[in-house]
């Protein structure tokens, strides 16, 4: 029984269901998604973006970084741990920027939360 709840695809002219967003024949989009459906999605996406920025930065253990910095800092171990390979190599060849970089990093690490994000 045809209830009349149909429309015609604006791309191919196929008779499709009134609520159809994608034409069942040609597969093209015939309706914009309703605002009432889209807006919550945007909010969710924004929340995901906030979370995403948290996920893009890596969670690191403060204690591990402090220990690495203290014992192996002149080899750049804590920089490698934080994923900063370039700085790690630099530290490795300069004895942690002649100890100054390691000292600054150690003090900086002390004031960081646990875990911290890089
Ligand atoms: Zn179509």
Question: What attributes characterize this protein structure?
Answer:
single chain; two-stranded antiparallel ribbon; 8% strand; 118 residues; binds zinc ion; mainly alpha; 5 helices
Shape: rod-shaped
How many H/I helices?
Answer: 5
- The amount of helix comes to 40-55%
Kindly provide the radius of gyration, computed on alpha-carbon positions and rounded to a whole number of angstroms.
28 Å
Give the H and E element order: EEHEHHHHE
Distance between the termini: 62 Å
The helix/strand class is: mainly alpha
Quick one: how many beta strands?
Answer: 4
Bound molecules: zinc ion
**Strand percent estimate:** 5-15%
Q: How are the strands ordered across the major sheet?
A: 1-2
Which stretches are low in confidence, meaning pLDDT under 50 for 5 or more residues running?
46-54
Largest sheet: 2 strands, antiparallel
Mean pLDDT over the full residue set: 84
What does this protein structure show overall?
By secondary structure, the protein is mainly alpha-helical. Helix content is 53%, strand content 8%. A hairpin with a 6-residue loop joins strand 1 and strand 2. Helix 2 packs antiparallel against helix 5. It is rod-shaped and about 80 Å long. The N and C termini lie far apart (62 Å). Zinc ion binds next to loops.
């Amino acid at each position: 029984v045809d209830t009349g709840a149909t429309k015609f695809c604006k791309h191919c002219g196929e008779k499709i269901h009134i609520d159809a967003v994608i034409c069942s024949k040609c597969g093209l989009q015939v309706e914009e998604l309703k605002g009432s459906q889209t807006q919550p999605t945007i909010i969710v996406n924004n929340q995901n973006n906030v979370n995403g920025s948290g996920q893009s930065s890596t969670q690191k253990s403060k204690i591990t970084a402090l220990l690495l910095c203290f014992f192996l800092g002149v080899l750049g171990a804590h920089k490698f741990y934080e994923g900063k390979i370039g700085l790690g190599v630099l530290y490795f060849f300069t004895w942690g920027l002649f100890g100054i970089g390691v000292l600054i990093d150690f003090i900086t690490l002390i004031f960081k939360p646990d875990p911290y994000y890089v």
